[in-house]
Amino acid sequence: MTLLSYQIFKTVVDHGSFLKASEFLNLTPSAVSHAVSSMEEELGFSLFTRSKRGVSLTNYAKNLLPYINAVLNSDESLRQMISQYNGLQKGNVKLGCFSSVCTSWVPDIVESFKKEYSDIDIEIYQGTYDDVVCWIKNGVVDLGFLSVSSAGNLPITPLYKDDLLCVVPKGFKKAGNTEYVTIDEIRDQVFVSQRESTDADIHNFFRKYELNIKSSCHVVDDLSTIAMVASGFGICIMPELVMGDIPYQVDIYRIKPSEHRIIGLSALNSQFMAPAAKMLYQHIVEMYKTTEVE
Prior knowledge:
The protein has about 290 residues and is an alpha/beta fold. The chain has a domain at about 160-260: D-Maltodextrin-Binding Protein, domain 2. It has eleven helices and twelve strands. It is elongated, with a radius of gyration of 23 Å. The protein starts with a helix and ends in a 6-residue tail after the last helix. It comes from Parasporobacterium paucivorans DSM 15970.
């Protein structure tokens, strides 16, 4: 097998189609099909299941994919290192992020980074905490944003303390005229909740205070959650970073005692990243690391 065959395999995986992969690589469909067939013959097992909807990985291929990603990432690292030795700063970096970081931070990160390193391209992968963890472990992305509590056994550099807030419908009746809500005030409320893979820090909050969550809405993104709150389906807990530019009419209260999540930047091994990835890693740390998390 050759590096080209690995690249063809990965492109078919990314596009879910032999035809789309051939168009992306500027190869004929028969050349792509022949490369995959040759790999399958050499490996002794099928890599893809073909159907009218496209192609999907076999179980054998799913186990093989992280190793092929590692080979391709190593090749990219080598190319970047050679460019660096020749006085050039080129390359491609894949960055994983969750929703609120994607909307609040990523545009500024890309813009400021490109001003310094115009020949380094950044690919953005947005998903849940679980998605980003999986992408980092399997080599799909070079580095990714996570909350410290969702990183598991991945190494992570803490960057930013993001306070948790209570979001309620307009006209919500609360005790007193304080600018905060207490745990007891929200204990028996109906909540709009997200899946734990999307909202691990909020579920940790629920467990910490033994809140028995009653919910008729189970959504998967921040904006939908707040839309449901604005429509009177319940209340929710949201990180402050999410609430910067919300188009819905809701009231926001701080929580007493205060709680927060820690946003961090994770990579399998930050010391052995490709040069372009290392530059982006350091750029992000310099932009967002605060003394509050040290």
